[in-house]
Amino acid sequence: MTKKNTINTLGDAELEKMLEETRAALRTERFAAAGARPKDPNAPAKMRKTIARILTEQHARKTKAPTI
């Protein structure tokens, strides 16, 4: 699990890659859970929170006022 401090230090390309990987993992977890009992029932919630943190950081960088 990645902490918020780590997300703040990543570059834009790294954030995009991490977002894609986390979304793919969440999709896999969701469909795997349909067939059998998951090992970690809280994993999807953790992944959704990570995705939200990444999107929040991307939005903050995009809307950040340029320094003059």
From TrEMBL:
Recorded GO MF terms: structural constituent of ribosome
InterPro entries: Ribosomal_uL29, Ribosomal_uL29_sf
Example of a GO cellular component annotation carried by this entry: ribonucleoprotein complex
Keywords: Ribonucleoprotein, Ribosomal protein
One Gene Ontology term from the biological process aspect of the record: translation
Protein name from the UniProt record: Large ribosomal subunit protein uL29
Organism: Candidatus Kaiserbacteria bacterium CG10_big_fil_rev_8_21_14_0_10_56_12
NCBIfam families, alphabetized: L29
Family designation: Belongs to the universal ribosomal protein uL29 family.
Alphabetized HAMAP family for the sequence: Ribosomal_uL29 (MF_00374)
